[in-house]
Amino acid sequence: MRALRLHTDDDVAVALADLAPGTPLDLNGATAAGPVPAGHKVALRPIARGAPVRKYGQVIGAATADIAPGEHVHTHNLGMAEPGAGPVAASHAQATGAPLGAPRTFQGFHRPSGRVGTRNYLGVLTSVNCSGSVARFIAREFERSGGLDAFPNVDGVVPLSHAGGCGMASDGEGFDTLARTLRGYAGHPNFGGVLLVGLGCEVMQVAALAEGLGDDRFRHMTIQEAGGTRASVDRGVALLHALAARANDDRRAAAPASALTLGLQCGGSDGHSGLTANPALGVAADLLVAQGGTAILSETPEIHGAEHLLTARCEDPAVARALMDRMAWWEDHVRRHGGSLDNNPSPGNKAGGLTTILEKSLGAVAKGGSSPLVGVYRYGQAIDRPGFVFMDSPGYDPCSVTGQVASGANLLAFTTGRGSVSGFKPVPCIKLATNKALYARMGDDMDVACGDVLDGVPIADKGREIFDTLLDVASGRPTRSEALGFGDVEFVPWILGATL
Fold this sequence. Notes:
29% helix, Ribose 5-phosphate Isomerase B, Chain: A, single chain, alpha/beta, seven-stranded parallel β-sheet
């Protein structure tokens, strides 16, 4: 098979390998009229200029020129079209999920809060950019002085610096979003202990952030109160030693799969993403939800044009309205800043065969499987119920992941067709390669190869493989990005509002 038609209503097929001119498509008797790269679209029938073009049985754009059968369909002859309106209704006709199988478990760290961690790190969290360097000095000095050698059950020290915390309004959407994010990390179950470091005079005050977090696993300080950089480093190292001694007593023990909250991500997507890794990850998400766990879909700009597939799965109309409210916010947000939701896909996405945001979104939502959508959350808002949920976020991967972790994700899965080399301490992230060429080229960065789906491996089987991998990683198996040392610079809170 040289090209794959995904739905009987489709006007295009996806090339499964590079097609030379004259290559028979084995579909509708068409042959390639010119070269078509793997992962790109090829027309199966005549398409008139202005006519809608369908893939996945859905509109992905409109033809900007007459297109003949066998022609390459991409940015030169395909543009945006108005997406179909998302129904604000609840219907479980498309929300099937997965049947409950035998109960599954993993080996995790049971915290006093009742939550379960998949890693046992110490965190050095910052309230403001001004304390970022000192936080790194503290972590480096603790490690340099052999602090970790004395605490073998501690996975490492993670300094988390960011660009915000001051020069901002002291209330409102931007302030609340950053505060939620920082508090979500401060109480995250993958930290056995957290030290919060501030400067002292910033808008995002340490004392306010620390309210309700003052147990034996949390400490806070400010550089100005401690007496400057050197004194702060000495004090911070001493506080980390106390936190490490407590965290070192923790041991992995059996926990139900329901204790897992999985962040679903895709980045560097290509024309194979919606065919292989994304739907396979959707199966894994359904398996987790069936076990009583939680799966978080995010990247709101990257569901534009596919909202109706999610609203049709909402458990009640209020959830559907909440999702559409977030989409309306984004449409207004990009308009006020002179942008367009179709500024996405990126150049790399387009090189991989994706042409419009409608096409990209239809493939991206496949990560969410088929379970009912039970809740819509703000960025970094604590997820307070199990099941398949949506958390509002930008499409920018590190920023979106940061919000998911703040909301409670203790495990991450990231599909990629072009390649990704990021990590997200303190949460392990498995990378899923959408195609064989990527896995052959960047195998040291990939955890699961999904290109064999196009060779006949059933999506359901690949989904179970991903689910088993997730349980192994949750139990302590290092991911490729962890083994390579990634995760120290990908903490990117969403900064909203004016910088003052």
